[in-house]
Every structure is written in structure tokens, then in C-alpha cells.
Amino acid sequence: MLRKLFHELSTLPKYIYVFAAITAFGLSIGIYRMYAGLGVTTNLSKAFPWGIWISFDLATVALSGGAFTLAALVYVLHFESLHSAVRPTVLAGLLGYSSVLVILLFDLGRWDRFYNVFLHPNFSSALLEVSWCIAAYSSILFYELSPVLLEKSRWRRFLPTIKKYTIPIVIAGVTLSTMHQSSLGTMFVIMSPRLHPLWYSMILPIFFLVSSLAAGISLVIAGATVSYWLFGRSLKIRILAKLGWFLPWILSFYVVLKFGELLIAGELDMLFSSGHYSVLFWAELIIGFFIPIAWFSFKRVRNSRILSMFGAFMIMGGVVLNRFDVTWFGMNPVDGETYSPHWMEVAILVGVVAGLITIYSLVAHYFPVYEETELYREPANTAPRLQEAPASGD
Amino acid sequence: MSHTFNTPRYGFLIDASKCIDCRTCMVSCSVENNVSMETTRIWIKETGVTGTFPDLSRYTVPYHCMHCVDPSCVSACTVGALQRTEDGIVKYDNDICIGCRYCMYACPFEVPNYEWDQQLPLVVKCDMCFSRLEEGQQPACAQTCPTGAIQFGKYEDMLALAHRMIEENPGKYVDHIYGEEENGGTATLYISPVPFEELGFPIAGTTSPAYSNRLVTEGTPLVAGAMLVGLSGAYLTIKNEKEEAEEERRLAEQTPVAAGEEDSHAS
Fold first, then answer.
1. Does the beta-carbon distance from A125 to B113 stay under 8 Å?
2. Residue-level pLDDT at B32
């Protein structure tokens, strides 16, 4: 038994060991943080009560937006040709959300009573909405992923039952995601005194939702290309091209909305007059939005793995920078105080990200995450039972 | 859902011209509420030394929770650990707080403090010494202030007193009661001989950000409901369309002539 395990471990790609070691280091720092409190292990202060962890959480949730975007496209709007992208995206989404929950637990001062979120809800709090939605949505992602984990096990007999309820569950999941992607923006609606006007807006929830659509699709495109190199498995270029086609539209919509909001709020003069805030603002828009809009308009780009991956990374960079701006760089300092993270904050974060990569690689190694042929059959099966009779023709 | 907010029952009137920076209020607050002097519920804001020698001046003023009529912290708190009482006191419940620190960012007056050096920290915030009020006493800071810079009483009385002091001492105070309008009104009121910005007070609007927050969060269930209906509708519509198209295609394969007629009719 033990020899079998050792043999199994030796067949794994070597990079997994490196990431597992980093994870172990990060998590042990995390346990120290739980024990020692926030003062010794972080640089958080009265002026900056939230730090790099919250910025990371917001960025991760935005990138994990691919899971609900794809679910909506494939299951609700019937873009069945995109189906083979669903599994890797849902896995990435589930791991993304799990890491957010882990980091949030490290971030809570009273992590010992996190359950009060469920026992004492305050329904006017955007953060409550976010935490409820993320908890519920993580379970839904797990449900969506469960066929992958069960397909080759003896629990296979549950598959028909699971597939029967897939559509209602997916619709609930898409709704929950829309809610919390936007609620993450709502969280900052109450911070009008603190957040710089270049980012503050009453419609932050809409900005967050729209940019998460673009970031999520980009993660699918980039992830497919990276796994092409790592595992030799990937999505068909035709599917990536189709996904890439959506990007200029989503990004342009965001840009129009963003400048429209600044115009109506009368804040256009701040675009060039706010010092480093202006620089950050333009960096975010040029890297994440302007260049990619042009980039993905070319058919040649969308049809090339490497070129579309390049564009996808730019979008992800821009959206991640946006989340960091809203949570950290764009916050007006109080009494001249600024924030930069403690090394332990960074170590815990790196550990969690390494954990993500480790688990993703392991699941992709052992479970049929990338099996396209298997999946092309599925859309017909996932339809509710009642409609099965007419569909049996094919 | 409509929200009505009763005017506060009690109020503070803090006079920056009378503060001598002795910090008795900080000590008495710390003793009364058993909090460390590092993270007190009350602290001193100041202008710093201004003017040119020999006409130097320096103003200080004690600063603590404003006890807003429509508090952002109460609206933001994930678990409802912050609540505004009937009397208008914004209270903090030690036993519920999960330490998310959203209140610290939400507060437009930068009031909530945090026990960063504790293993399991809590938020630190003025509660008007409500247990002393129940015994008919004044809050510790007001009771011990040697110069009368911190006064405490019925809110109406404090507001009237603030107006009277500004009127009766022309030129002594700037014509502004900080807290009368700020953030939709607060139970703590300030008068000062120098503009409040110079004391380092935040420039707050006249409506509480809690209002904008509620506008969005209370609309959420509606949006969620609409999304559920819309998505289900979209799913069923597209599904039906696809099935009909499939059916037509099949019919067309079986009876090509009939389908041809159908096509010309449609176009």
C-alpha cells in the first residue's frame, strides 16, 4: 500500500512538489498569524484596516468570474460549442473561491467566531451579501464539478440525479455570482469619504460585474494555453477564438460606462490632475482595456493561442490592478499614513496561491478535467428528464 | 423599506477653545472602560503650532465617536454588532463582532479603533458610557474634564447652547457647529475658534453614506429575483427555439416540398 503510494507520488510532475512545499510554508505562517494576532504579523493600521489580503480576494473573485460567465453562456444561452471549457473553468473557479474563503479566515480578527456571519446577519451590509453569496456559490461550484470527480468512481450511479438538477442549480449559481460580483463593488459605495473619486462611484457594483466577465473569460483563455504547455491538454482553438470574440464588446461597454460616469459626476478634470492616482487610473485602463479592445478585434489574434493568451494576461492585469486600486492604492491616506504589506502577509498569500496551483494540478492529473470527447455528448444528457424523449433522436 | 431616525436623546458639546490638552478625558475613559491607553476610545486632534513668533497658537480638541443619527458603521457591520439605540447611542457588541473591520473603513469620521496588539482583538469605540448614564451620571470624559471643554446633556440643550455660545461671543468661534449637519446630524457637536479642517476634522457631507449603501443593498433581492426569472426565461425560450428548429429541420428532411413552401412563405 505504502509502496504503491510512493510509486504514485514519484509519477507526479516535479513542479508539484515545489508548490506543495511553498504551500506548507505559507500555511504555517498562517497558523502563527492565528495564534499571534494581527498586530505582529501584519502592517494593518487604523488608517488602513484592510490590506493586500482583501485586494487579493477581490482580484481572485473577479478572475473566477469565468465560471459563471461560461455557465451562463453554455447552459442558459445554449452556446453548446463552448462546453468543453466548462470543466477546467469551474475547477479554477472553485479553487479561486476556496482560496478567498481561506484568506478571509486569516483576515478576520475574530476568526474564532466566523459563524456569526450566519447567526447574526445584518441585511443592509454589502459584506454580508458577499459572504453569503460566496459561501453558497462555492457549494454550487462543487456541485457543478462533482460529475468530474465521480465519473470514474463507484459513486457513478449518482450522476443521473446530479445532472437532472444541473440547470436549476446553474441558474441559481449565475444569479448568486452576479449578486456577489456586484456586491463586492457595493462594499465601497459606503466609502465615499475614503475612496478617490476616480474610482468611487454609486455604480461600482456594475463596474465590478462587467469587468469580472472580461477577467473571467481571459482566465479561461490564458489557462487553456498554460495547460497546453503543462499537461499537453487544452481547449480547441476554435473555442478560444469564440470566447475571445466576446472580449472587445464587454471591455468597450465598461469603458463607455466608466467615462460616462466620470462625465456625469463632473470628475473628468481629475483624469490628469490627480498625480499618482491619474497614473494608476490610466495604467489600468490602457493595459486592461484600451489595448485589449484593439488586440482582440483582430481575427488573427483570436485564432492564435499565444497571441490571445498575451491579450488575456493584459486584461487580467488591468482588472487585478483595478481591484488593488479600489481596495488599496486609491484609498486616501489618513494623517499621511500609508500601507505596505508585512512579509508574513505576503508569505501567507503566496502559500495559498501555491496551494491553489498544487490542488489544480493534482485534480487535473487524476480526474477527467480536460476530456473533450467525453464532454461533447453531455449537453443532451443535462436537459431535464421530461424533455428527454424528443432529444433521443440523436 | 423606509428609515426614520429619531433625534438623539443625549448629546456632547465639545469646545475646542477650552481644551488645554491635559488628556484627563483619555485617562478617565481608559480607566472607566478598561481599555489600553494605546487604543483609547477618545483622543486629541490638534492644529499643531501655527503663526509666527511671538504670536504662536495651538488648538487641541478631544475627539470620539460622533454617534451619528444615520451611522455608516451600523449599516456596514456584517453581523450587526454595531447598533443605534433608541437614545441615539451607537453601541458595539463585544460578543458578536467577527473582526472584519468594515466599520473602520465605512466610518466617515475615522472613529473605530482596533486592538491590533491583541490575539483576539475587538473594535474600540465610545459608547457614551451608557452604564454610567443608567446610574444618572455623566460620561467619564465629561465628568472629569477640568475646563468644561466636554459638556454633556440633552441633545436639544447642547445644540441650543452651541448656538448661544457662537452668538454671544462674536469673533470667538467660527460660525459652524460641526455635527449639526455633518453626515446627516450627529449627537456629538463641536464648536471651535479655528476652522475644523485645521483641527484635522474630516470634511463630511450632509447625508450619510449609509443612505447610498441602503439604496443599493436593499435593491439587491429585487435584482436577484429578476435575474432568476430572466435566466429561467432565457433558458426555456432558447431551448424551445432550438427544439422547434430541430423539429422543422426533421420535417423538412421528411417532406422537402412542404418545407420549401414554408420557407418561401417565411421570407
1. no
2. 93
